Amino acid sequence: MMKVYGACPHDCPDTCGIVTVVDTEVENGRCLDFYADPDHPVTQGWLCAKVRPYLERVYHPERLEYPLRRVGAKGSGQWQRISWDDALAEIGRNWREIIAEHGPAAILPYSYSGTLGLVQMEVVNGRFWNRLGASQLERSICGAAAEFAVNTTLGVRRSPRYEDVTHSQLVIVWGHNPVSTAPHFMPHLKKAQRNGAQLVVIDPRRTRTAKGADWHLAPKPATDGALALGIAHIIVNDGLHDEAWLTENTVGWPELAARLADYPPARVAQITGLSAGDIVKLARLYATVRPSLIKIADGLQRHRNGGQTIRAILTLPAITGQYGTLGAGLFYSASGIVSWDDEAVGKQAQSPPPARMVNMNRLGAALLGEVDDPPIQSLFVYGSNPAAVAPNAGQVVAGMKRDDLFTVVHELFMTDTADLADIVLPATSQLEQVDLHKPYGHTNLIYNAQAIPPLAECKSNWDVMRLLAKEMGFAEPWLHQEADEVIAEVLAATAVTHPALQAITLERLKTEHSIALQAESTVPFADGVFPTPSGKVELFSQTMADMGLEPLPRFVAAVDEQPPVAQFPPVLALNLISSAAHHFVTSTFANQPSLLKREGEPFVEIHPEDAALRGIGDGERVIVENGRGWCELKAVVTDAVRPGVAASSKGRWRKLNGGRNINWTTSAALGDMAGQSTFHTNNVWIRKKKG
Ligand SMILES: Nc1nc2c(c(=O)[nH]1)N[C@H]1C(S)=C(S)[C@@H](COP(=O)(O)OP(=O)(O)OC[C@H]3O[C@@H](n4cnc5c(=O)[nH]c(N)nc54)[C@H](O)[C@@H]3O)O[C@H]1N2
Ligand SMILES: Nc1nc2c(c(=O)[nH]1)N[C@H]1C(S)=C(S)[C@@H](COP(=O)(O)OP(=O)(O)OC[C@H]3O[C@@H](n4cnc5c(=O)[nH]c(N)nc54)[C@H](O)[C@@H]3O)O[C@H]1N2
Ligand SMILES: [Mo]
Q1: What is the distance in A from the centroid of ligand 2 to the CA of 567?
Q2: Which of 202, 211, 158, 154 is nearest to 536 (CA)?
Q3: Centroid of ligand 3 to alpha carbon of 179 (angstroms)
Q4: Global model pTM greater than 0.90
Q5: Is 682 near ligand 2, meaning CB less than 6 Å away?
Q6: Average pLDDT rounded to a whole number, residues 182-197
Q7: Per-residue pLDDT tens for 634-675?
Q8: Cα-Cα-Cα-Cα dihedral sign, residues 59, 60, 62, 68
Q9: Mean of the per-residue pLDDT values for the chain?
Q10: Per-residue pLDDT at 653
Q11: Which residues have CB atoms below 5 A from the ion given as ligand 3?
Q12: What is the mean pLDDT of residues 617-636?
């Protein structure tokens, strides 16, 4: 019996410490038990509902085991088992032909957050593809606009420790659902509430998190920017702002103060659908109950105006002088506390000049001709399931069916995306690979030791990159290192600029499993330094002005531009938000029977008034549709959503749900900043299914 320590690799800010118990008597080892690391400071000995039954995922009977070659038509599900040698040779042959005709930019790697590891994600996203000169993927499906807004306003993404919320007297969880999406924050939040802190949740939907709040406000979707500027207006009108802090620490305060005149409570009430009284009450609460923390994540900004929404919210801790105070300020992401050395990760300087960028949100359109010169002739997908999770997924499927597109999918399962491949390669699970994880919600580095050898013929992402490098004749040593060598190299390179890392070696990580990057509680911006060009909070951002973006926070309505269709009258449109499911991580786990059972049928929540208007009863089958497409769901008639809003969740596999999911309706239009996805700016029409 052997205990192996690792890291949960999934897309979640908590990045838990995990322990696998392996029976070493069995040939190749067999995992007997899997549980939370009792000593990990954030995990604290418990795992979420999704990851607890992890061995069901690892030993799922439908794990892919061998490379497969398509034999029937694309998507027909007819495969032939082939060897790794044959698979690699076939990929190499296709790519050499494509490169000869169109150049390497005709090859597009597509990946996102199947794993968040340094080696299996970051290094894999960089090195081989850079060396090849493939198209670069603009990875903007998740939080690009918020990252950009936070970086331009504050200079960097830094957040307090989860436990520091116990110092807050007021917590505003704004468009974020941590009960499902950051579960290890919750015990600290509950403790803060027991200590007397008030919890306000702002979300158009009554989420699990909202149910535990002292006050839940449900604005119309995508109106939060107006709400934030309205709050600021009231605070300044009441003289509750911190003029001295603003003068000392910000750029653009006079300009912003002038603009706030545009956001009086009556107008903001009309935009948001909240009462003017509630808006005033919220503003006074925020300005007077201190320290107050605003916690956001990424769901909130998946709208056409998402970047400006975040910019507007970021003004509030500045207006009340609360950045840099324990228990106050902003909690978004800890990613910027330490950034891995770019060159050690990606070796761009040792590769051909970067090729063109393709925005991942535009995958369907790109495959169907929006990207040409050269057209995309080959797609290599790993760690992502775009045929189920990308916006306007119906278009992605249509694009992937192109006969002249050579698609390789490296996966653990025959996903909706793998269904459309020419070659499928079997991937390892986290228990079968080595990695290092730097979380985005906290700062404890975790080493993931390999618990068992790869099942059957599965290979890790990095091992596949090494084999592809060999196939393509790339001899650079940085394409052939062992995973541990990669980790040691990136640690050492990063330590040059981050002294905190100097004492953190691979050896220590292997013995201590998890090491805090920050020894003590460090309040973000307590030193008053904001690493923006001006060194201050940039309420006015010259950087944005130079990029042609609106440099002062402003509310612009989010409009879903759909061509008018007679059967979809604008008055009957519902704004559909499709957020995180409690028991899946996007589409990961959504093929695991025990979790599917706990999550229940795919649903759409609709307010009783809207249901009555459309003759829809609770539990009935409905068609959710718009000019982009449709899918079938079960109606849940509930006042958990406000009239005019419908709510569903992301991540369902189309093939397990009648061939379509909610992303048949979502828009691939880009947001106001950083090429952001806009899943929630989505007008749909809902009708009872006939017959
Ligand atoms: N269980 C679980 N955990 C996850 C994931 C998962 O799929 N399942 N996904 C992971 C990933 S990839 C991410 S990026 C994070 C996301 O973490 P979160 O951002 O917390 O999750 P979401 O559910 O996407 O969005 C949060 C909330 O935003 C609300 N919302 C949507 N539009 C608006 C709006 O206009 N205004 C306001 N105020 N609220 C709005 C939704 O109703 C939703 O409740 O979670 C990660 N963790
Ligand atoms: N409607 C709607 N859709 C959304 C969103 C939304 O809010 N609404 N949110 C979006 C967001 S925030 C995100 S981040 C994206 C997430 O979208 P994706 O990044 O595509 O995430 P998953 O659906 O979890 O798919 C990850 C896949 O990677 C595979 N995988 C896991 N580990 C490995 C590995 O080590 N190697 C390989 N080769 N494969 C591996 C898993 O089996 C899984 O099939 O979805 C987006 N989709
Ligand atoms: Mo995400």
Answers
A1: 33
A2: 154
A3: 16
A4: yes
A5: no
A6: 98
A7: 999 999 999 999 999 999 999 999 999 999 999 999 999 999
A8: negative
A9: 97
A10: 98
A11: 142
A12: 98
Measured torsion, CA atoms of residues 562, 149, 651, 451, in degrees rounded to the nearest 10: 160
Q: How far is CA 352 from the centre of its chain?
A: 29
Calculate how far, in angstroms, residue 557's C-alpha sits from the geometric centre of ligand 1.
20
β-strand partners of 682: none
Q: Considering only CA atoms, which residue is closest to atom 47 of ligand 1?
A: 181
Spatial distance between the Cα atoms of 429 and 444, rounded to a whole number of angstroms? 22
Under DSSP, the state recorded for 14 is T
pLDDT for 499 equals 86
Q: List pocket residues of ligand 1, CB cut-off 6 Å.
A: 11-12, 113, 142-143, 174-177, 180-181, 202-205, 207, 221-222, 224, 297-300, 303, 577, 579-582, 584-586, 651, 680
Rounded distance from Cα 115 to ligand 2 centre (Å)? 9
Using CA atoms, how far residue 479 sits from 128, 449, 465, 525, in Å, is: 7, 21, 7, 38
Tokens representing 602? 């795919």
Residue nearest to atom 41 of ligand 2 (CA): 114
Give every CB contact of residue 40 below 8 A, 6+ residues apart in sequence: 16, 17, 444, 446, 513, 514
At which residue do the structure tokens 């950009």 appear?
A: 148
Cα(575)–Cα(303) distance, integer angstroms: 11
Q: Which is nearest to 201 in space by CA: 109, 108, 294?
A: 294
Report the distance separating Cα 5 and Cα 514, nearest Å. Answer: 9
- CA end-to-end span of the chain, whole Å? 57
Rounded to whole angstroms, how far apart are CA atoms 435 and 7?
Answer: 8
> How many whole angstroms separate alpha carbon 396 and alpha carbon 651?
15
Kindly report, residue by residue over 446-470, the tens digit of the pLDDT: 999 999 999 999 999 999 999 999 9
What would the two tokens of residue 420 be? Answer: 């459309």
DSSP string, 194-213: HTT-EEEEE-SB--HHHHT-
Query: Ligand 1 test: best mutation among 112, 139, 201, 203, most atoms within 8 Å of CB?
Result: 203
Question: What's 446-476 look like in SS3?
Answer: EEECCCCCCCCCCECHHHHHHHHHHHCCCCC
With contact defined as beta carbons under 8 Å apart, do 337 and 533 qualify?
Answer: no
